[in-house]
Amino acid sequence: MPELPGARRAQRADGLPFRPAVLATARATARVTALGAALVALVSLIGWFSDTDELKSVLPGTEVSMKVNTAVALVLLAFSVWVIAHERARPRAVTASRAASALATLIGALTLLEYVAGVNLGIDELLFDDDTAGTQTGTPGRMGPNTAVALTLGGAGALCASAPRIPAWVAQIPALAVGALGMLRLYGAAYEVPQLERFGAYTGMALHTAIALVLLATALFLSRPDEGPAGLLMNSGTTGALGRWLMATVVVVPPLLGWAVLAGEDAEVFGPRLGTALLVAGHVAVFTAVIFTTLAVGRRVEVAHARLAWQVRQNELLQAFMDHTPAVVFIKDLDGRYLAVNTTFEQSLGLTRDQVLGRLDKDVVPSDMARKARASDRAMLAEGRPVQREEVFTLPVGTREFLSSLFPINDASGRPYAVGGVVTDITERVAAQREVERSHRLFTALLESAPDATLITDGDGVVVMANTQVRHLFGCPPGDLVGTEVIGLVPPARRRRHGALLGAYLRQRDPQPMVLDRELYGMRRDGSEFPVEVSVSSLQPEEQTLVVLTVRDITERRRLEAERAERYEQQRHIAYTLQHSLMGEPPRLPHLPSAYRYLASVQDPGVGGDWFDVIPLDRYRTGVVVGDVMGRGLEAAAVMGQLRAASHALARTGARPGALMTGLDAFVADLADQLVTCVYLVIDQQADRVTLCSAGHLPVIALPPDGHARRLGAPVGVPLGVNGSSGTGLLFEEVTHPLPPGSTLVLYTDGLVERPGTDIEAQIDVLVHTVDLELKDAPADPETLDRAAARLVRTLIPDTAAHDDDVTLLLLGVPGPEG
Predict the structure, then answer these.
(1) Rounded distance, CA 137 to CA 144, Å?
(2) How far apart are CA 268 and CA 257, in angstroms?
């Protein structure tokens, strides 16, 4: 259940609970430690400005001072992390923070580069000359390599922490590494191990630098306390408590044990070997205690989880019980806010559960009902025991009578903390008999008002009720049909089939309403037959089965359907004749055998905008044009006829393909809202070449006698009509290809290869492959081309009867000039 308004709630991140106070404390700690790191670095930086050796080293007795670059980088990083630790930092502050962390990263990275490459980049004494080099080994002004690594990691971590989209662990893991480097130096000082201060002959890390790094690492780790590894420690659940306890153990116990062992060795209480054994034994003892403590916590977690799972299961069972209760069930707190409702409650008010839970009565139900409900709740709580009463409420659906039961829900001490209620609608129970009588009257009136003959039979097909319309349809009074078999209203020759249909319907486990009008007939009293439409449905009153048959005379419908079919066939014949006359029959040229297929769209009566033409130009030259007018129907066919005539006339003038396309484009531009794709070829059998020009049309496929089928490359111009409508004036380019004797050309429109949900390029590849299979090494005679055309259509269009686009396919065999 959602928490009530005003209730305290824990913030959540990554599925873990967080308390705002804990997160605020963590961020405040991050800011304080960042300021502490900045203060340490600023003191050293002031020492460099004032040339005060005591301030450079900060801690008395410390030989190694904090270098200038180290102090500057620490101040920059401290500022950057201080800004990041604010939840609502201003954009300018965030930008400055990122710039500061980037500069600190650069200082550390350049110093590392000096160590790795063995060069001096001139950055070590850029601000001040280092006069402390005499007391330590290393290049003057250059920070130690471990310090450079720590600053580089810290800068990179601060940059990542300032970007909310970058996961927090990307910044927190480097922060842990920075802290480890600082702690390593502190351990060296605590245990008097100089090897942990510096590595080899390089400059060592100052002690106060290590302190500043530890403070900086703490600030960076806690800057986003509700995410990543920090979230595992800061959450208010068992995970956070256990993690903080283990972290404290790991941070405190091993150093103390190590210090104790070293102190014993220094005091000569025991030797190094015994000291090592005691150190190991101490760790074993401590971590054994940690393990058993963790196991105890884990056991409590498992017990709590089991109890919670059991409680959740009980709540689910209770909610399931409530949802399957036909009465309205609800639970409210003492202030009248809904804590739980069932499905019937939602359905009664037309509200979803999310719109109800957590709201008061006055926010959910009408004001009058809300006042009555609140008064009833208070009266029940005042009595301190369950009460039951009958009430009348005016709902949006009307006045209803309810039996309401209210009862207190008490806690373990017996004090009520919620109100439960069960409300049962008894309106139907009170008026049950009146409703039955009213329903009977309504049913009878409905049956008599039906415009069609309606019969109700039992499960054996015996008529138990009929309306007056059966007299007009069958010529029999309704009373004469009651008690007779309904199959008697069917012509004798058809009773076996009709009876089988009714029996099959009744044998269904859950028969659904259906309408039947195929080969069904009724019989009038005079013996005449007539076609009927029968609507069948079933009723299940009590334990018997009733079948409702609604019968309609469809003699007139059948006559109109026959007339429509005849008219459609006439229109189809006219359209076919029109299409055939517009396209004409292409000439059969002996020197250019051909075959073609044309399929009209099933959506139109046999007409469309596809066309092709074969135009003899001279003895060895032939023009071929294929086009497709956008759209379907008579309008597209009319435009197609005009374009076919225009293209034929232009080709006869000897126009080259590009000029012919330009002329057709001007012609189409004069037609309103028309776009046409077209390709025109001039086949020169004497020169063994073909010249073509395409206006947005699909590529021509060529099959040479000594190769495989391929697309004939050509610049694809814009469709006809685009230049005129847009004023672009784009030219139509033509191209010439060699055409060896014995080649075959395949031209087509998009209806052959375009399918919804398929790639047209893949379909063209299928077409090319099929051409290669059908015509490779085959004679290019008309019969072979015709068989190939049929095979191409079957391959590309499996169901031609359902194809919804015009299709044009033209195959041309190209023998030599003497062929």
Answers:
(1) 10
(2) 17
